[in-house]
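Before drawing any conclusions, I looked closely at one protein's amino acid sequence and its backbone structure tokens, quoted below without any editing.
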Amino acid sequence: MHNLQKNLKRKNGFIIMARLIVLIRTLLPVMFFAIVLGSIGHLCAISVTVSASAGILQIAKPDARLIPLRILPFVLIASAVLRGIFHYGEQYCNHYIAFKLLAVIRHKIFIKLRKLCPAKLDGRDKGNLISIITSDIELLEVFYAHTISPVAIALIVSACTTFFIWQQSAAAGITALSAYITVGVLIPLINARAGSVSGLHFRNAIGDLSGFVLDSLRGLDETIQYSCGSKRLAELKKRSADLTAMQKKLSGFESYQRSFTNLIIIGFNVLLFCIMLRSFINGASSFENVVLVAVTLMSSFGPVVALSNLSNNLMQTLASGERVLNLLDEQPVVDDVVNGERPALKNIGISGADFSYGDENILRNFSLTIPEKKILGIHGRSGCGKSTLLKLLMRFWDADSGKIEFSGTDIRSVDTDFLRSVQSYVTQETVLFRDTIANNIAIGKPGASREEIIEAAKKASLHDFIITLPRQYDTEVGELGSTLSGGERQRIGLARAFLHDAPLMLLDEPTSNLDSLNEGIILKSLKEKSKNKTLVIVSHRMSTLNIAHGIFKMKKAVHKEECK
């Protein structure tokens, strides 16, 4: 997955934000409400400072007519209380939008993964993928809850305060507007440009570390057995140190930006005060106006400072958004066919098929006819394309050239759901979920009864083992079936295939992890229970293929296979 991310062209930050904003369309009324509440809340906060200053001036100069002292306490209390209420409402709306959209994005990600697998995700870094699904999507909460509405709020509040200051002095208004643009726009853009690459590298490094830890946990037994613990620990420390260095670099950006922002704010406050002081000396403004304008500017930087500070987290947020969007932009190797053909499985033929993984040719001008309701054995050395052939029949991949046909219908026009329903596929490595044995077998037929599950287990020579367990079919198998042996996991895979009961069974080394006794029982069951089915069995062991009606020997990148 990390390589998948690297191969894609970097996206512009504005494009990333625009695409993330598009997802808000259905929640625009809530976003509008959040912007209104936030704007009014900030104006209330500014009014507290300005009203208090006006009150002090009124006390010092009773004839100033700035604000009636008898209502000043009520104005201050009302402004403070309303600020709290409106701020709460704004945050509630923003987080409602954020968590709603995070659920939507995760849903889109899982739909995309379903379309990409298995071909596009085969061999990808699962730890990096988990990082995208979890921490990267979670980090988008910063964008949806603390970026979109604050930008609009900063625009509205800055416009209101600029208008107020402009009424007192045009020069002061221009100064205030320049201050808001510098703090709220220029500084975030400069900071984001400087740290955007570092942010993406940091998120990718987190994903790589997740993958490394996941691999280390899965290979814990091998690490202990071959005394590789110190080597793995050293690598873990190195990766952690590199990640810490990246984090320090990003923190450095943040500290410099905060210091520079504070310096700019102080500079603009001093500049505005000098402008108003000169206006006072020239008799164009009263002393009260000088104080109120200066206080207004000083107390109004909250929204734009929030934008400036946001640029620090925004670097990582946009990097996470880019990784998520890159995954959503990935195109599947094979597109599912909806409302396609539903042919009978009378004649399955491969003619002139070529296939390669990148530059490595696996099949060249390959032709083969699979007899109906017979057992066909495929024999050959490792790497000659036996497993690839089954994946082409499952249409996990499409052949580079040539045809694969079911009763004269090209497999690329066959309805995908129909194709899955008429095929049972047993891989070399059976993947088990952290669930009960019964539920793992039931994957072959959702909604299957316990009797059907037991019958499938008997066919796979698994039932006698299961009933010796304390909880029998309700026994948990652990993560990836860690509590079971390789042979037991393989038999659960076979039980799934028996339960699915499809007319075409594709078996890839179905007995490679079994002893000779269980292999014989399963092969006997396959032969007896599949008289009305078409079986294709791939194996490098001739003993497994003794039940086959015909055996095809494969060599890598051959032109034609001959029946033995």
